[in-house]
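Database export, one record per block. Field names are fixed; values are copied verbatim from the stored entry.
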Amino acid sequence: MYDHTSVLKMIEWRWNLANLTLRDGSTDIDNLACSLHFGGAGTTVKINFQPSGAPIPLGYLPDTGQPFADRGNGQSYGWSGDNTTNTRDRNNPNSPDQQHDTLAYMQRTPLPDAVWEIGLPN
């Protein structure tokens, strides 16, 4: 069980801060900072929220507003329901590129409580 000072130590350690309290300076192995690992290679997945049929930016996977499922591209992601009617390709000449030109609205009719999720490895 961790007390609030172990949480403070974890915050100090993670962001390289000075000790906030005397106890935070301890080397206690039961401290939360010692139990969490923030290093190592992470998973990078680039998602472009866009309507079906819109050009997909290089290096991105498309999300077209479909419910959460295996997308057949090695990833499982999606919405809490059908959000396809809330995707947009603005085709705005002022957008620097396609990834800045597309979007998916959240929490609009017909999915006012929309949630987007992605499955990632532990």
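Remark 1: The helical segments are 4-14, 32-35.
Remark 2: The longest strand covers residues 76-79.
End of record.
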